Amino acid sequence: GQQLNQSPQSMFIQEGEDVSMNCTSSSIFNTWLWYKQEPGEGPVLLIALYKAGELTSNGRLTAQFGITRKDSFLNISASIPSDVGIYFCAGADSGTSYGKLTFGQGTILTVHP
Amino acid sequence: NAGVTQTPKFQVLKTGQSMTLQCAQDMNHEYMSWYRQDPGMGLRLIHYSVGAGITDQGEVPNGYNVSRSTTEDFPLRLLSAAPSQTSVYFCASSYRGRGGYTFGSGTRLTVV
Questions:
Q1: Across the interface, do A105 and B40 touch by the CB < 8 Å criterion?
Q2: Residue A48, exposed/middle/buried by CB under 10 A (0-12, 13-18, 19+)?
Q3: Which of A3, A51, B69, B106 is most buried when burial is the number of CB atoms within 10 A of its CB?
Q4: For residue range B44-102, what is the model confidence (pLDDT) as tens digits?
């Protein structure tokens, strides 16, 4: 089946630093999604990407859909303590296959004030 | 709008017991899914549905049953609980696969 490799597995950074994480897939996806999960809660959608090469921002977050459709990255600029959490990438095909999201293993982000 | 509502939030079962995890959404979303989350393994798809009366298996369907009789509800049934089913379960919904999936807050299940 499809597999997503997300890296790094964890990051420990100082407040104000920029963060970069990425996902690579063994197969092509038509949609890439980035989620953030905080303790005791479900994942919350940060950015959705639907087109190869697409670059989308949401405040201090920027994500890109790789040209090959097998990868995506997420950047967080000027990190703040509330950025702490687990960040997941997810890939999906189009049409009814969109029902089958495949998730990466997650990146645990710790921000030191 | 309540979004995606999961009940119960916590549950302890004995091996061999059965139970149903409830999931309801009020956003008129056609697509609904169940995931389980285990440490270090991300979220893995159990079953999903692209509309009322339509369900399909995900990556880890064994030991779980689903049905989708209405657009709003997508219950997950454990017929005979096993310790390997100890996990956090998330339900999610989406509008025809656009705009990402909205997740519930999860059900933490322990099987002893």
A1: yes
A2: buried
A3: B106
A4: 999 999 999 999 999 999 999 999 999 999 999 999 999 999 999 999 999 876 778 99
Question: Which residues in chain A have Cβ-Cβ distances shorter than 8 Å to B96?
Answer: 98
> Could you give the C-alpha distances from B108 to A31, A52, A80, B18, B78, in angstroms and in order?
29, 37, 29, 15, 14
Segment A32-85, tens digit of pLDDT: 999 999 998 999 999 999 999 999 999 999 999 999 999 999 999 999 999 999
What radius of gyration, in Å, describes the C-alpha atoms of chain B?
Answer: 13
Beta strands in B14-103, from DSSP E residues, in sequence order = 19-25, 31-37, 43-51, 54-57, 64-66, 76-78, 87-95, 98-103
Q: Are A85 and A110 in contact (CB under 8 A)?
A: no
B43·A48 Cβ contact <8 A: no
